User: What shape does this take?
Amino acid sequence: NAGVTQTPKFQVLKTGQSMTLQCAQDMNHNSMYWYRQDPGMGLRLIYYSASEGTTDKGEVPNGYNVSRLNKREFSLRLESAAPSQTSVYFCASRTGPRGVYGYTFGSGTRLTVV
Amino acid sequence: DAKTTQPNSMESNEEEPVHLPCNHSTISGTDYIHWYRQLPSQGPEYVIHGLTSNVNNRMASLAIAEDRKSSTLILHRATLRDAAVYYCIPTGTASKLTFGTGTRLQVTL
Assistant: This one.
């Protein structure tokens, strides 16, 4: 019962470097989400994909791009990392777009940009 | 998105019941009320959700006010493993979870 798997778990980048955070779910969920959490704060939505083939911006999309590769996988790319993107990144999925169903979260990727 | 108000922190003794309140006075008629919790250094974990009627599951109970402007998450017997930040989140057809700062629950022996 893997649920939502995120890789890598930890990453240190230098300012200006690029990287892709990977997320995969094995629950056949339609919707997938990327959040970031800064120290002492709640989660903020970066991007989401309500269904395969669609993506939409969330609250804090600047500096990020996403790809919904297939129904299972949703990746988050930082093209030119900045220290302000130091955060913990969480991927989540749910079975449908409405409020009926609960979300399943991954364990997070801890990213430090120096 | 409906605005929520939760206490910043609460304390409980182990084995005691805990009632975590949430005010969501601007909730729309079709929003479900979701509760999640986040244990230290982990991702959020779904706890329970409901629309109008009270709900029970193996983790907790959810009591929803008749006017739906508030709800209470009830942990029947708190354990040390229940120490976490608890988030109350009205969620509608827009499908996005919007997290506030939640309630930090401390459980002591």
Notes: Chain A has no helices and eleven strands. The mean pLDDT of chain A is 92. Chain A touches chain B at residues 4, 31, 33, 35, 41-45, 48, 50, 58-59, 90, 92, 94, 96-100, 102-108 (CB under 8 Å).
